[in-house]
Amino acid sequence: MDEEIRRILKLLEEGKIKAEEAEKLIEALEEKRETKKRGSGILNIGEVITEAITSAVSVVPGIVLEGIKGVREVKESINWDIENPLYIEISGGDLEVDVGEDLRVVIEGKGAYSFQDNLVKLTAGEFFLLIPRMKVIKVNLSAGDIKGRLLCDDFEIYLKMGDGNLEVEADKVEGIVSMGDLDLNLINVPSSIKLNCSMGDIKLRLPEDFDGKIVTRVNMGDISIERKPDISKGDTFIYKTGEKCYVELKCSMGDIKVY
Fold this sequence. Notes:
54% strand; 2 domains; 20% helix; 259 residues; alpha/beta
């Protein structure tokens, strides 16, 4: 057994990553080795996997170094000015989010938690976050999962290793996934969406009144368009006038689904 696999199994044993995350990492390592033997060719898949593995594994030792110091029961309510951006960092934990009517950010759960300068930082635990409608929400997930509902003007999400399953109402949406799956259910028709995945799947559910142009690109994987467009041109799909929303979906290794 080589050092990389030994490292992943140790993290699994210590409970720092889940079984499915360990499986994904090991599968990716094996695929990387096979790709090197065959030669990556035009697609440069070897580089894609190396980048994804580096991004994913490199974040986990941070959790090991930090340990689980500061783990506690959390129940806190913070008065919030919706003009201020909200930054959320998740390391080795799971988060459920929902929208509240009060101008407060409410945090509940158990784990290591800190708040400073508009940044809510959650580590090694499970949390629930109640958030009012905001101007800007940015999520940085190093290892773990996030699910729920968000309302804001601008939404950005960065997944290094983990899954996101969110209902989103926003004018602008951007996301980068190194390793994991991102499933977005659009409540409204935004002006722009840009999602880029290195290794994993992207799923995008369109609202009934969607009007826009979707441009897709997959290097290794499949594109599934279950919501029938009015016009199809190669990997470009147009709904109604195609003018209200511009969507760009890219996946280096994985599948794209629009439904």
